Amino acid sequence: MPKLASDLGNTINKSRKALPNSNIRAFDEKISAIPGIIKLTIGEPDLATPDHVKEAAIRDIKKDDSHYAPGAGKPELLDAVSKYLDRSLGVHYDPNSEVCITVGVTGALNAVCMALLNPGEKILVPTPVWGVYFGIIEMAGGVPVQIDTSKDGFILTADHLREVMENEGKGAKAIILTDTSNPTGRVYSKKTLEDLAKVIKEYHLYSVSDEIYAELTYGGAKHYSLSQIIPDRNILMSGLSKDFAMTGWRIGYIAGPKEVMGTIIKINSFLITSVTDNVQAAAVEALNNGNQDPINSKNTYERRLHIIQSGLEKNGFKMATPEGAFYIFAKIPEKFGSDDVKFATDLAKKAKVGLTPGSYFGKGGAGYVRLSYASSDENLRESVKRITKYINNL
């Protein structure tokens, strides 16, 4: 293996080199070596991509669709996304100028941050949140300002946002809102979004909404979007990874006002040239003919939520009621203290159940663990048994 030339040793971009690795991935990899462990760590649906979606990709391959697609995405997929958002949210985006196809929401967030942020500009991030946000913002030259929502049941309030804007968030450019939330499973009500929108307008902010779990809400909770309230300043990001069990297909999209989407589309094409042809063909099929697929997924996850939530609560875990996605964000029993990394590590070693430490999701996460119930009923029941035995033995 070649070793880097000695005269190049200190020439790597210092700010990029200093970026932290994903603690979530690192912890998952570390505990993967434990024999017999049940991992509930990663947000990875165990369901299969629907057959009609896979068949659409196969047909596309067989017809030799193997050339560069347009940078913003294939016209038929842009049209499908536009119609889907019109159908689900009642908000219309012009497929010719206001929609862009990306490599998942990760790719979408990179393009959006690079389009919006000048060096040193602040962007507000309600936490706990998917930890990748922070590194992406910093790579774009921005400064993430974390807003701890733990005292408000993991829902950012308008009063809290205004307080932040008058203090550490003063001069911020934008706010990112994850709804439905990863890691907490909370869902923002229409009234809460309307109140937040007033503050966002008052302080002349962009809003960026990550709506990848929009279809997965339970117990009467309903998804609303800031694009329904402030479409002139909201940039919506979503994709098919969770609703259609297509995480490995890496397909996402962005929709927003034409004036900002032109820059986003240009950046996205520089980053990736274009998204893979057959993946786009599969996404067209999913959006146009897969209305039942997210419903099937939702029914499965809601059943699993009840299995795991009751088991955790009986063992002393407390949580804000999860209303969507496929996560529980639970406070560990008091007798274990607040060191969530120590608790999750010990649980993995002794009970052979993998949960993700809550502190990896930013401020407000310490003392919690995140559990993904995107796993089989059998694994979830067995996990409850193992956790119960672990708690009782101590």
Walk me through the structure.
The protein is α/β, with parallel strands linked by helices and 394 residues long. The protein folds into two domains: 12-49 and 293-393, Aspartate Aminotransferase, domain 1; 51-290, Aspartate Aminotransferase, domain 2 (3-Layer(aba) Sandwich), CATH 3.40.640.10. Helices cover 41% and strands 14% of the residues. The chain is built from 13 helices and 13 strands. It has helices at residues 14-17, 23-31, 51-62, 75-89, 104-116, 132-139, 158-165, 190-202, 258-272, 277-289, 292-314, 340-350, 377-393; strands at 38-39, 99-102, 122-127, 143-148, 174-178, 206-210, 234-239, 252-255, 318-319, 327-331, 353-354, 356-357, 368-372. The strands form three sheets. Strands 2-8-7-6-5-3-4 form a seven-stranded mixed sheet, sandwiched between helices. Strands 9-10-13-12 form a four-stranded antiparallel sheet. Helix 4 packs parallel to helix 10 (277-289) and helix 5 (104-116) crosses helix 9. 49% of the residues are buried. The mean pLDDT is 96.
